[in-house]
Amino acid sequence: MNQDIQRVLYTAEDLAAANQRLGRQLAQDYAGKQPIFVCILKGAVVFLTDLMRQIPTELSVDFMDVSSYNGQTSSSGAVKILKDLDVSVAGRDVIFVEDIVDTGITLQALMELFKTRKVKSMKLVAMLDKKMHRQREVQPDYVGLECPDEFIVGYGMDYQDKYRNLPYIGILKPDVYK
């Protein structure tokens, strides 16, 4: 897998530092509360695991599998829920955990859906923010690191379900996906 990486964008150490910073901020902001972290599968699961270990307060976790990429390198624009939550979020403080915010299409659809579920509050934490492709008015409330206009993989993020297990975030060589 490493031979398919053009260059490492963020090392495992960079990711750990971002998680520590985000964990401190979330612990402070949610002190005395019991938020539910809604992890967007599959990409955000590695981030969620590292992040929640940095938060020394009570929290719960649930998962949603939502697709708008369908194996491609860019969003199709059609959001499809493949797996919904197992618990009700009515009256809860919800924190969406996302690996990367790119177009904002998926997250806008989820936020609209969750408004109908009568949540107490909604926030978004993302390891990466890729602003240049934003098509919807979605801004993460907590951001680990900025993402350049490159196709990246690793740390849970994939190309055709490969590279998720890389311990770093790297830029995929264009000849791999073109």
TrEMBL record:
Pathway: Purine metabolism; IMP biosynthesis via salvage pathway; IMP from hypoxanthine: step 1/1; Purine metabolism; GMP biosynthesis via salvage pathway; GMP from guanine: step 1/1
Keywords carried by this UniProt record: Cytoplasm, Glycosyltransferase, Magnesium, Metal-binding, Nucleotide-binding, Purine salvage, Transferase
Cofactor section: Mg(2+)
One Gene Ontology cellular component annotation held by this UniProt entry: cytosol
Chief subcellular location: cytoplasm
Cell compartments where the protein resides: Cytoplasm
Taxonomy, superkingdom: Bacteria
A single BP term in Gene Ontology: hypoxanthine metabolic process
Top-level EC class as recorded in UniProt: transferase
Keyword Protein biosynthesis: no
GO molecular function annotations of the record: guanine phosphoribosyltransferase activity; hypoxanthine phosphoribosyltransferase activity; magnesium ion binding; nucleotide binding
InterPro entries linked: HGPRT (IPR050408), Hxn_phspho_trans (IPR005904), PRTase-like (IPR029057), PRTase_dom (IPR000836)
Keyword Cytoplasm belongs to the record: yes
Catalyzed reactions per annotation: GMP + diphosphate = guanine + 5-phospho-alpha-D-ribose 1-diphosphate; IMP + diphosphate = hypoxanthine + 5-phospho-alpha-D-ribose 1-diphosphate
Pfam families from the UniProt entry: Pribosyltran (PF00156)
EC number: 2.4.2.8
Domain Phosphoribosyltransferase: start-end pairs: 12-160
Functional summary from the UniProt entry: Purine salvage pathway enzyme that catalyzes the transfer of the ribosyl-5-phosphate group from 5-phospho-alpha-D-ribose 1-diphosphate (PRPP) to the N9 position of the 6-oxopurines hypoxanthine and guanine to form the corresponding ribonucleotides IMP (inosine 5'-monophosphate) and GMP (guanosine 5'-monophosphate), with the release of PPi.
Protein family per UniProt: Belongs to the purine/pyrimidine phosphoribosyltransferase family.
Record NCBIfam families: HGPRTase (TIGR01203)
Record-given protein name: Hypoxanthine phosphoribosyltransferase
Biological source species: Bombilactobacillus apium
Organism classification: Bacteria, Bacillati, Bacillota, Bacilli, Lactobacillales
Underlying gene: hpt
